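Quick one: structure for this chain?
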Amino acid sequence: MQERTAAGAAMWVAGGMALIAFSDNFIPLVADRMGLWQFQVMRAGMVLPAVLLAVLAFGRLRLIMPVSAWRIAVRSLLSIVALMMYFAAVPSVSISIAAAGLFTSPLWVAFFTAALLGERVGPRRIMGAALGFVGVCIVLGVGTQPIRPMAMVALAGGAFYALSVIWTRRQCAGESALCMSFWQFVGFILLGGCGLAGLPVLEAAFGGVEGADFALRPWIAPDATAFALALLIGASGIAATTCIAVGYRSAESSFIGIFDFSFLVWAPLISWLLWGEVLSLRVAFGMGLIVFAGIMAMWSGLRRPAPA
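Got it. Here's what it folds into:
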């Protein structure tokens, strides 16, 4: 029975990751029709009212009320910056490379917990970090081709995502998943509006960066396709988050967390099915090393006994 529950939980998480991979494959089409900041405002703005109405209809308003508003605000900011960096990179470097950068987060978690929190780093985590570093270098083509700036942005997104994971574990344990998701969508609208207002500053700072066009585009009157894409990606995100939450509540996180990495399988597979894009052997090998290193870092961190 326990094995069946674990298998079901794995399917929920892998299914959620497949939904995200499917919707994120449409981001290059989004980039043809609007900018990053507009996309986030539209995506969150179309989904958030539906979530709020559902909460009100079921009389569960308390589920979106934070225990600590400032802790939720910090968590939302870190998560949003991470995902903004990932979204910004996708049209320029492909979803596979952008995802590889984002999914270095377990390696960053190991680094930050050691460097900032003073936790002991065991040999397995050190080995995992070394393998992950090699994997990143292979994916980026270090020594064989120029490193694209937006690939580094995706890598930085992995670092911010790691900070959000650490903050969530230590400061938001009492918050519900719905509460964190709701205020994250609110944050996307606020930060998207700030990004649109600050475009002149961003243009002056990053106007010459290769591949930064998506992040520097002003508001464009959206057509029906733009609305449909924003709704598709936003609704898929809500459905995927629900699937992943169900999975994590049904099995041990040390086991189920491995299936987060199924995104790195789904993303290139769906990209091939939809657009005919084929992943190079070099990038596939590097992504494999990142996955293996991430699992090593996660397991060694979770299995280490807590101090008395």
